[in-house]
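Kindly inspect this chain:
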Amino acid sequence: MEDLLEEFLHYITVERGLARNTLQAYERDLRHFLGYLRERDIRIVGQIQPPLLVEYLRSLQNDGLRATSISRKLSALRNFFQYAVRERVLTKDPSGMIESMKKPLRLPKVLDEAEIAALLEQPRPLTPVGLRDRAMLELMYATGVRVSELVSLKVNDVNLDMGYVRCFGKGSKERIVPMGDLARQAVQNYLDRGRPHLLRRTLEDTVFLNQRGQKMTRQAFWLILQEAARQAGIAKSVTPHMLRHSFATHLLDHGADLRSVQEMLGHVDITTTQIYTHVSRTRLKEVYNRTHPRA
């Protein structure tokens, strides 16, 4: 079974091109399951039957794992068994009849438009670092890119004449995302008057640099965002992903269609994007209840 697991991990790495975090989660979840099997002296994949899987999932539940974590582990098992069927190691997927645990609907946390406006105004574009911080915040809210995509942007990935950025998301999938005039101007100012001072004779080709002329890290951007939120007087705990959530929600609030938002976010499945329609409806209901005289 260990050999089959190694073959499967090689397959999803080379042929499916999954993101590194996804690969690590798959391996972690599957090795946990193999440990469970070893405790029961099960070493052949053909011995795995649906009742055993149900028992395993129930043990996870008894250990206090959330439904989302259990569903993720079940997804890893399904992919593993489907691979075993495709390779003719199994004749049937033992997880085929097992239903996924229903995940509770958790609405993304977003900033309202006034909070966003206050946040983006905080970095003062008077120094190279201020120009950089303003450009990063403006660009992230304008495009909805993930923080990993933001700090990995290359100079050639930014087209200011046409007003778009080229991103490489999960699984190295490429997408083009437009940006508005305010973000475009902020990035232009940084490239003209900020980045040359930070470059320090290095050959780094990423757009956003630290004060040593090296690529910015996600952790450094998180600190920049935290400081801007503090200065803006925002009481919420603001995260980089909250800017992405706000980007999508505000687009839908102002009439964008779901398919376009899906493409800009880089979601493979539109059901992932649909969560933002719930946020938008919830916000509309809050506005109605707060402002209608007979609500």
